[in-house]
Each structure stands twice: as structure tokens, then as C-alpha cells.
Specification:
Elements lengths: L1 H21 L10 E7 L4 H16 L5 E7 L3 H13 L3 H6 L5 E6 L5 E5 L5 H9 L3
Length: 134
């Protein structure tokens, strides 16, 4: 009988603990970030960024980050880049940024540029810059 009472008290304590956890405020959700790479096959900086971005993408797995590559290598890829930019709501932004060889960190909701990633940064520096904007 004592064991039954002890078990009941323990279960009641567990039930109270679980109930109080349900009433906690949810964690603040993070922003979604777009990493917009301005690329062209003929661009040396673009080629230098590729292995860094591959490593960065591995470190960012599971984060609210979407990688977008706008390729300006030729007329066909530029047209596709324009279409993708329009679909993402970045069409006006695209006309202002006609250079290649960097990655813009963009708030997915406001479309505001939050920073840039370049080949002169280490992967850890890039990671910290992206994470600081989430």
C-alpha cells in the first residue's frame, strides 16, 4: 500500500511538471535568411567562394537559411536569374546589385540586405555573420 501511495505521489509530481512545461511561452522564432549568391562562371571570386560556401552550407544545416544562386554567366542564365529574383521578391534589389563574386545576406521577409559574404572571409567568419542575423 505504501508503495502504491509513493508511486501515485511521484506520478502526480510528474504530471504537474509536464503541465507546467506546456504553459511555458514558445521559444522566439528566428528569421529566415536568404543567402543570395551573385555568380558567373567567368568570375574568379565566384570560383573562390564555391568551396567556402559548400563548407558553410554544411555548418548551416537545419538553420532557417535558404541558399539562392543568381547566375549571370550568359544571357540564358541571366534571364533565369531574373525570373527567380522576381519570384523571391528581389527584382528591384537585383537591378541594384549587378556585380558578381559575393553573397548577400537578405532578410527573407523584409528583403533588406543584412550583410555580405566574400572570399576574404573564413568559413567561421561567414557562419558567425549569418548566425548573428537569425
Amino acid at each position: 500500500m505504501k508503495n502504491l501511495i509513493l508511486i501515485s505521489i511521484s506520478l502526480l509530481g510528474l504530471l504537474v511538471t509536464v503541465s507546467s512545461c506546456k504553459n511555458e511561452q514558445p521559444a522566439t522564432s528566428t528569421n529566415e535568411i536568404l543567402l543570395v549568391k551573385y555568380h558567373a562562371d567567368w568570375c574568379g571570386s565566384c570560383r573562390a567562394l564555391s568551396p567556402l560556401l559548400k563548407e558553410l552550407n554544411g555548418k548551416l544545416a537545419g538553420k532557417k537559411v535558404k541558399y539562392v544562386e543568381l547566375d549571370f554567366t550568359n544571357e540564358v542564365t541571366s534571364k533565369a536569374a531574373g525570373k527567380e529574383a522576381t519570384e523571391l521578391g528581389l527584382a528591384e534589389y537585383l537591378t541594384e546589385k549587378q556585380k558578381t563574386g559575393y553573397v548577400a545576406i537578405v532578410d527573407a521577409k523584409t528583403k533588406k540586405e543584412l550583410g555580405k559574404l566574400t572570399k576574404t572571409q573564413s568559413v567561421n567568419e561567414m557562419y558567425e555573420k549569418v548566425i548573428s542575423n537569425l
